[in-house]
Amino acid sequence: KLFFTDYGNAAKVERCDMDGMNRTWIVDTKIEQPTALALDLINKYVYWVDIYLDSVEVVDYQGRKRHTIIKGRQIRHLCGLAVFESYLYTVNSDNLSILRINRYNGTDVQSLARLDNAKEIRVYQKRTQTAVRSHACEVDPYGMPGGCSHICLLSSNYKARTCRCRTGFILGSDGRSCK
């Protein structure tokens, strides 16, 4: 799945399949400017920062179990968000500090460091990477991902895929080759 935020005409947090199909709103009320987004892949939770409401909130992948982690002035100007173990990590763009927030109760907010021009944050740790099983976009014996001549996108599950073409090409009738 692909998760993303939108604060155009109607602010929301959404998800869709990797090929853009099955687009679903998972949060569309009491939300104004959702920006940074992070996923807890193990427990299937979506965290986001709302810079207008000065809040960090969470829902499960279906948009249920919503609650506010932290709200108020102390988290104004947040950008970037990452989840690791019991904490959320984010960047305060006002004073360029990296903050650590307890994701279970919103307490224990600590400033860890200062970085010039930081706008995003990522946690790279082996435990944050899920094991990859075989999937529909694996490279075939001819070196083509999922048998697609240009782009292979996972569809509704890891066994299904959709082929797409680069700009200027059209998908052939076989659904795999681009012309």
From TrEMBL:
PROSITE patterns: LDLRB. GO terms for molecular function: Wnt receptor activity; Wnt-protein binding. The keyword Iron-sulfur does not apply. Keywords: Lipoprotein, Receptor. GO terms for biological process: canonical Wnt signaling pathway. One of its GO terms (cellular component) is plasma membrane. LDL-receptor class B repeats lie at residues 1-43, 44-87. PANTHER family: EGF-LIKE DOMAIN-CONTAINING PROTEIN, VITELLOGENIN RECEPTOR-LIKE PROTEIN-RELATED-RELATED. This is Low-density lipoprotein receptor-related protein 1B.
